[in-house]
Amino acid sequence: MFRGMRNAARNGTTLSEALVAVRRRLPPGWGLETQAPNQITLRGADGRTANVSVLVRTGLVPRDIPALVAWAERPMLVVASYLGRRARELLGRAGVSYADATGNLRLAISSPAIFLEGVGADQDPNRTPRPLHSLRGAAAARVVRALCEFAPPFGVRTLAQAASTSLGSAARVVSFLETEALLARDEGRKILSVDCAALLTRWAEDYDVASTNVMRPYLESHGLDALWPKLSRLPRYAVTGSVVAESGVPTRLAMVYVDDPAAVARTLDLATTDGRANVWLLQPYDDVVFERTRPMRVAVGDAAIDLVAVSLPQTVVDLMTSPGGGTHEAEQLLEQMKQSSDEWCPGTPVSSRAALAKRPRARAPASRMAQPLRRLARYLQDDSSLFGSARGHAQVPRRRP
Q1: Structure pTM?
Q2: How many helices, marked H, and strands, marked E, lie in the chain?
Q3: Protein fold of 214-337
Q4: How far is it, in rounded angstroms, from Cα 99 to Cα 37?
Q5: How do the domains of the chain map onto residue ranges?
């Protein structure tokens, strides 16, 4: 609960700082009102208004922007503590307004017509190297997922590539996990083994499915059997929770990762509710939830419906922090993991030791120029190879370098 409060406070601070920058640049007679945590209303000097959806992200990297804007409701304002130059460029190209806490701003609304632009920091002021003490944040989550979904041995650089994170982030997470005795490395610092069950349990201490993600509760009045077939209407989604665990217990709460909960709720004909919900639409903490997904089937009457499910490690941590009997279902999945690692580690990153073992090892020359100079010397020793043969180099005997 307190972790969710801290996340909400941090997001609230970022939003308020960004909106201060917007208000400061509004023309005379214009106004801005906050209607809800995810919506603002702009009022023009002529009295016309525009409702703008607000998406707050503590961190947003360019890789996540195409998927973010593809399903976003317009007009939309993306707010973050800091938006890099490339992120601002992609958002502007997609016609999405943005603002960050350092003063970078672009607000373009067609009715009432307004265009605002502001320049803030060109580098993240909070980007400082620091030792890691938790597994909070998208970068740590990506590394944890990769550690549980690829089979070691592999090095930190290969891990960073598999997780799509920076080398520095991967190194900090690995050092922290090594300190916590959740993985083991050899003398060359290559990762040899990972205690996936303990690692996921540790991740759950810094993660909560309802607060780490943006959760919106809804009601499917016709029951969950009516929900599963309708998911095929969505361009991208991934189910998680009890339906993925397949424990035999009837699923009472559907948890589905989507890009825009409000827009998806309209597409699926879900009703908003302040009471008992049977559907949670989750706007993910990071697009990693849509990576390495798995196909699955769920029975609906006499038919079987094909669904897209998150990876098993993501399912486990979601169940560990979900209400109801999720903890028990997570423990069952962890037992399955201990018995069969093939389900959890289906492959190895491209630069793993298994791949490297197939490559012939070559002794490194004394310098970059040593080997070419030795070859040139051999040619010069045989004058006929250069001047006395009509066939030129064809008569030079082949010698191993």
Answers
A1: 0.58
A2: 15, 16
A3: Beta Polymerase; domain 2 (3.30.460)
A4: 15
A5: 2-118, 214-337
